[in-house]
Specification:
Layout: H1 3-12, H2 17-47, E1 65-66, H3 72-75, E2 76-78, E3 88-91, E4 94-97, E5 104-106, E6 113-121, E7 126-133, E8 145-150, E9 186-193, E10 196-201, E11 204-210, H4 214-221, E12 238-241, E13 248-257
Antiparallel strand pairs: 1-13, 2-5, 3-4, 4-13, 5-12, 6-9, 6-13, 7-8, 7-12, 9-10, 10-11
């Protein structure tokens, strides 16, 4: 039964003008509440804010710190050397890997955080978002865990759920396919609190795991990371975007600390 039919049935036996006026007010209130509920559900799906069901503290969007803007060169540096890396550009609020120049990472380090951003890849493109990274190695992936960024349809790694977009690279497969077609913007979210890690993609949870758990240790022992003594050992670290020799674009990068440091 539609809302109009319900209203007509409700008012049929209520002949007074005052009664019908009251009924109209009730119907408007009900429809407004229903619309608002749908809007909240849509927002939740887009941001992946259902994460609060995992005991993660929810943070209002306005409390996030932007990591792109006019001061971007004070917020990012090269992984291999200090200063802005060649091959990365910022134009119109979009951070792009346009030529070879190595990985780029945040100047600041983060321990517990909620990171949100958008990305798009080139055909057969490959990149990654790495976190809790420390310097001193050949590449960030020797210490940092990775949210895989990929053209799943064309890149060979897309055929393996362990190495497709949204996975915790080579350790935890994504839960389902949620990527948009190449050239469209995808919404990514990474939550790290203590040993708890979550990956979200376009409002869907891809990965949830605990660093150091029995399951984690079993997976780690069977992976290439078993021979990397510093992998996933940092309590805090930089956030790095990978230069994997392919064009890739990032925008609307923002972060909120979930630990005490502000």
């Amino acid at each position: 039964m539609t809302s109009l039919q319900t209203f007509q049935q409700f008012t049929a036996n209520w002949p007074s003008t005052v009664g019908k006026y009251f009924a109209v007010c009730c119907l408007i209130l009900a429809l407004t509440t229903s619309t608002r509920s749908a809007e909240v559900q849509t927002t939740t799906a887009e941001t992946g804010s259902g994460a609060k069901g995992s005991g993660i503290k929810e943070v209002a969007e306005q409390d996030f710190k932007p990591l792109l803007g006019s001061n971007v060169k004070q917020l990012w540096r090269g992984y291999a050397k200090e200063g802005w890396p060649a091959g990365w550009s910022l134009e119109g609020g979009v951070l792009a890997r346009v030529a070879g120049g190595g990985d780029i990472m945040t100047v600041e380090e983060f321990a517990d955080f909620d990171l949100r951003l958008e990305f798009k890849v080139s055909p057969a493109g490959n990149s990654g978002i790495q976190y809790r990274v420390s310097t001193g190695d050949e590449a960030p992936y020797y210490t940092g865990m990775e949210f895989q960024v990929l053209d799943d349809s064309e890149h060979r790694d897309g055929k393996n759920l362990l190495t497709s977009t949204g996975s915790l690279y080579a350790l935890y497969a994504r839960s389902e396919r949620a990527t948009l077609p190449v050239g469209e913007w995808n919404k990514a979210r990474i939550i790290v609190q203590g040993n708890h890690v979550e990956h979200w993609l376009n409002g869907k949870k891809m990965v949830e795991c605990e660093i150091g758990s029995d399951d984690w240790n079993e997976r780690l022992a069977k992976s290439k990371f078993a021979e990397w003594p510093r992998f996933a050992k940092n309590r805090q670290g930089h956030i790095a975007l990978q230069d994997h020799n392919d064009p890739v674009w990032y925008r609307n990068i923002r972060i909120q600390r979930l630990d005490e440091k502000k």
